[in-house]
Amino acid sequence: MKHPSPSWLAIIFLTLFLDFFSPCMAQISPFDFGLREATDGIDRYWALYKAHVEARNYGLEVNYDGIDTLDIVLPPDYQSIPIGPRTDFGGLTLYVTNRERHGALFAMYNSTNDLSLPKEMVDNGDFHTVPELSTGDILLILRDQKPWTERIGYGYRVYRQDILWIHDGYAVNTPIAPWNTDSTDLSATYAVVDTAQKVFRGLTLHRTEISDYKTYCLHISGQHNVLVENVHVTTPKSKMIADAVFGISNSVRVFFRDVTVDGTYSGYGRWRDWGYAFSLNNLWDTHFERVTADGNWGVFGTNNLSNTTLADCDLNRFDIHCYGRDALLQRCTLRQRQTQFSSMYGTLTFDSCQFIDCIPVRIRSSYNAYTPFDIEMNNCTFELTPRYHSLVNVMLLDTADNARPELSVKCWPNLTINNLTVIAPAMVRTLNLYEPTGTLSELKKPVGYINNISVNGLTAFRPNGKPAKVNVRLSNKEFKTVKELEYIFKPLM
């Protein structure tokens, strides 16, 4: 009888070992924690919570096979359910009732440590001499202790933040604006991260009408490389405000794909009845693909964002409230509001986007932070309406120069347009490239940075598809510039 060789025995043993410890074996189910025996919504919440805590503690995955629909109620002592590296709900429909307090249903947080750091290091990106940052992958979280600006009419100061991904002592990205300035007071923390992708997918979350408090879907902080995919959140009509369906902060490389948000807790959309689907702060390299979201208020509320991409999205608003750099919107539809910015740097690019009763760019005045950046619009379609018939709305206030040296000069953006299609109904036939609004005494002062406005191809049609004539104006009001302004207008013939 011929016996297997030692090498073949080793292979057989290794195969059995890998099968036993394969990812499909390293799973637990809410059924293991009393879900089947649960008699009410609170019991069902605890079954989910305990399963996810066990999975986090032992590096397991929660398996939702056999669980199609659940109705949970948050108990008085509820906590956010911690999610691990891979959370796939497998198409679960979850109804949540919250009568206790506002909070996130699911969360992924990371601990941080304080760090003393000379601000000269931040701009050159070389941290290899700092022991805490010299090896591995680290998120360096920067906060300026001196106010960046003060929001006029809102009564609060704004502090800028940046985040750097440090790999083996060197920064992969750069900050939004320089930190080695006399006006900067740097405070820093850091978090050690795993660069493997974390996944949160396959969930429909219904926030019930009988809830007295807001339940946010997912909050994340201090993470690297997270994918949120195939998630649908609905919200009933409610007088509650200040929503943050997805709250993401101090993270890099976060991806949203095939996500839908139907409604937000934003009251009735009145003045300051605010609430967001995406509440974002201090992020770099964030992506949104096939995201659809609507609410009574604008669905994005963000600060301190750098390198943001939106592709094939349908939204009522995208914005960077204050302090951002480089945003790209591709094949997006924006409806009934505006994309808003202040203290923006780099380039804001729209490729093949459609604007339906929407201002492509509004520069907010309340932050008094008019910084230099460029706008590019390529192959876009803009619908003229009685309410919105300008491409760049610069809101103005008769305010003193910002005390922060970086913001002392009021700058307007350059604008480059390549092949713009204008839909012009009979009652609106004038298109303004720029539209200054508000207290216009500021227009007596020359504005900085802007020196080029270029239109290379513009055609106009009526809503029925027939050709239309449109009066294109540089601005609805005269303004002065520090630099000589070059204006090129080449419509398509």
Can you describe this structure?
- The structure is a single chain.
- With 493 residues, the chain is mainly beta.
- It has three domains: 61-109 and 197-330, Pectate Lyase C-like (3 Solenoid); 113-192, no CATH class; 333-493, no CATH class.
- Helix content is 8%, strand content 47%.
- The protein is built from three helices and 35 strands.
- It has helices at residues 6-20, 41-58, 120-124, and strands spanning 27-28, 61-62, 69-73, 81-82, 86-97, 103-108, 113-115, 137-144, 149-151, 156-158, 161-167, 170-171, 186-192, 198-207, 215-221, 224-234, 244-262, 276-294, 300-311, 314-315, 319-320, 322-330, 333-335, 338-341, 344-351, 354-356, 359-363, 374-378, 381-383, 390-396, 414-423, 430-438, 452-461, 471-475, 486-490.
- The strands form five sheets. Strands 18-19-22-25-28-31-29-26-23-20 form a ten-stranded parallel barrel.
- It is globular and about 70 Å long.
- Mean pLDDT is 93; it is low at 1-23.
Placed side by side, the strands forming the largest sheet appear as 18-19-22-25-28-31-29-26-23-20
Which sheet architecture does the biggest sheet show? Answer: 10 strands, parallel, barrel
* Structure classification: mainly beta
Total beta strands: 35
* Structural domains: how many: 3
| CATH architecture level-2 label of the largest domain | 3 Solenoid
Highest-level CATH class of the largest domain: Mainly Beta
Low-confidence stretches: 1-23
The rough form would be described as: globular
CATH topology of the largest domain: Pectate Lyase C-like
Q: Quick check: average pLDDT?
A: 93
Radius of gyration: 26 Å
Distance between the termini: 89 Å
